[in-house]
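Q: Joint fold for the lines below.
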Amino acid sequence: MRIEVNGIARDVTATTVAGVLEELGWNDARVATALNGDFLPSSARAAQALRDGDRLEVLAPMQGG
Amino acid sequence: MRDFYGVTLPNALMLGTAQYPSPAVMEAAFRESGASVATVSLRREAGEGQGFWKIIQSLGVRILPNTAGCHSAKEAVTTARMARDLFETSWIKLEVIGHADTLQPDPFGLLDAAETLAADGFDVFPYTTEDQVLAQRLVDAGCHVLMPWGAPIGSGMGLNNRHGLRMLRAALPDIAMVIDAGLGLPSHAAEAMEMGFDAVLLNSAVAQAGDPAAMARGFALAVQAGGLAHGADPMGVRDMGVPSTPLLGRAWL
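A: Joint structure:
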């Protein structure tokens, strides 16, 4: 399945958001997620199925003013 | 004393975490400033986020995530929800930018997002202007803290509209207000505190100084001085000179 992660096309085998985060090495990372432009709580990632063409945003803490 | 959504801060300085020459310089600036709040943002994870988060945690300060860079209410609301999930705080510095050059807030998008977020249980810190009507509408929407700008973000100009800020401070005496954006020198921060504002938030003034740690210390002292001056009930201003030394007993020479 091909999805877009942070604007980059990725071929993934996992079928849930939690699975994809683990596949990409972010299973223990402190990140926030949005799927197709909508907020996806961390508690909902395991149950959230992915479909071909989905857009996943994975955000991390960053410097800010 | 006005609090920030039930929280009484140990001091009136909030400091941003961006633009420092290095993480070590940022840590030194925080130590010297004694700031009680650090602003942070969310960006796409590209390998730096986890290390940055460890540094922030080690500062031992309260976290105020922002929605910097958002230009619509929807973007800002989504970013705020992601921030709450990530940072485990209901505090959010709400920025909805309306103009690319001035970085002036979009008052309509700001109010829209503030209404949604306040209803959703957020403690909203809206980045706003000195506009009193907008301020009242934000309060009506559920904001108990306001963050009026001193001047455009990153400009270092200080308090551009002293009269407007004084009017705003007087109009909403029960609302905690933080002067956010545009400060360049400790004297700007002292002036804001002398006017009765509850705190100042700055970033570039410290991070872009030649010696950020020394500038951070300067701001800490200025904020303290300004706060003391406000609490001490300053004397009135006169147009004419009035001698302070007694005239009585003056010699006939």
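Q: Anything notable?
A: DSSP finds nine helices and eight strands in chain B. The radius of gyration of chain B is 20 Å.
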